[in-house]
Amino acid sequence: MSDVLDVAVIGGGQAGLACAYFLRRAGLSFAVLDGERGAGGAWLHAWDSLRLFSPAQWSSLPGWPMPAAEYRYPTRDDVINYLSRYEERYGLAVERAVEVEGIARDGDRFTLATDRGMRQARAVISATGTWRLPFRPAYPDQNLFQGRQIHSAQYRSPGEFAHQRVLVVGGGNSGAQILAELSLFANVTWVTPTPPSFLTDDVDGRVLFERATARWRAAQEGRSVDLPTGGFGDIVMVPPVKEARTRGVMHSVAPFSRFVQDGVVWRDGSGSDVDAVIWCTGFRPALSHLAPLDLVHDEGRVRTIGTRSVDEPMLWLVGYGDWTGSASATLIGVMRTARTTVAEIVGALA
Ligand code: FAD
After folding, report:
1. Cα 302 vs. chain centroid, distance in angstroms?
2. Ligand 1: centre distance to CA 259 (Å)
3. How far is the CA of 306 from the centre of ligand 1 (A)?
């Protein structure tokens, strides 16, 4: 078992790298342990045509703005390239591929069981994201359906669904972007539990982040702020979605009642033959490595104040979305909580 680190960061995606940037500046001994074989985190697994919903300079990690991309909204590969160069730029020696199988309290430190041996650290940052835990809602008789079912996390490109009858289920950015692309190749029906909420054309990730920041500042100062509704869960009109709107395909239907062997039955009793279903129904925090600490409650989260665990005060959780900080599941948004997390750790280790 190697030396006891000040901090172990589990996960080397954007959240883990943002924390590493501040840990390096704080002069703490740390290791970033990441399960992937290369840089990029979840972006390594996103579909080929995925675009950021924020322009490059509004998708930056601390210290180094994302270089302008060929397109106003960078591609998946632009993000992977940026994250890889970010690691090099700051000499962040992310250890790969290391799978953290569990962490346990061990006196005044944690012991981390990994597939490459045991590690010990006085503090732990969990930055494992959500991509590994796709969420699929339960529908009646789903087991009868003989067609193909995948989650958006497994979707790569439209070719494999060409000329098929496909249901895209889910009204967020994944559903909208996959519908926009797939509708050029297949017969697609978009199913959303409620009518989809489109942001206006002038609102993108940059505007959403500015609004999230204004709300955050107001909350810090104990005042209210009057801003248009709409947030990161609403659909940003990136170019492919705008183009699909001109084709009249951005219309959804209410959910079906149940599956049958070769399709679905709708609420009015009518049926449709379906070849495939793509579940664009979001994700849940990937926290299985925390199981030995028995902290994950029934909503799949951990009780925190900010990013700090209430029940394990030397554990912090970064990058999981609003419950760990406003806009924290975005490239530019994670900076704020990474900075406060490391400041708390410096205080706790002093
Ligand atoms: P991840 O990127 O998932 O990285 C976590 C890392 O931890 C991974 O490398 C994983 O392998 C590793 N890991 C997990 N468990 C373990 C373990 N037990 N041991 C070791 N390693 C482990 N964000 C934006 O900022 N702008 C956008 O435009 C944007 N668009 C999006 C569009 C879609 C369709 C989706 C789904 C998300 C989008 N996001 C966007 C959000 C962003 O992709 C994710 O929130 C981001 O990837 C989260 O980063 P992360 O570092 O928290 O997690």
Report:
1. 17
2. 31
3. 19
127 lines ligand 1 (CB under 6 A): yes
The answer to whether 186 and 165 are in contact (CB under 8 A) is yes
What is the spatial distance between Cα 162 and Cα 174, in angstroms, rounded to a whole number?
19
- Centre of ligand 1 from the C-alpha of residue 70, in Å: 23
- Which residue has a Cα nearest atom 18 of ligand 1? 100
Q: Is 78 in the pocket of ligand 1 (CB under 6 A)?
A: no
175, 190 Cβ separation under 8 angstroms: yes
Give residue 346's identity as a one-letter amino acid code: V
Tokens, residue 249: 């395909």
Kindly give the distance from the C-alpha atom of residue 65 to the centroid of ligand 1, in angstroms, as a whole number.
19
How far apart are alpha carbons 17 and 92 in whole angstroms? Answer: 8
pLDDT digits (tens, 9 = 90+) for 137-176: 999 999 999 999 999 999 999 999 999 999 999 999 999 9
Asked, as a colleague might, if the bond just before 291 is cis with ω within 30 of 0, I would say no
DSSP of 161-199: GTT-EEEEE--SHHHHHHHHHHTTTSEEEEE-SS---BP
281 lines ligand 1 (CB under 6 A): no
pLDDT above 60 (res 277): yes
The string of pLDDT tens digits covering residues 319-331 is 999 899 988 999 9
DSSP 95: B
Q: What is the DSSP letter of 306?
A: T
Of the residues 21, 32, 34, 45, which should be mutated to test ligand 1's pocket, given the most ligand atoms within 8 Å of the CB?
Answer: 34
Does residue 285's CB lie within 6 angstroms of at least one atom of ligand 1? no
Model confidence pTM above 0.85: yes
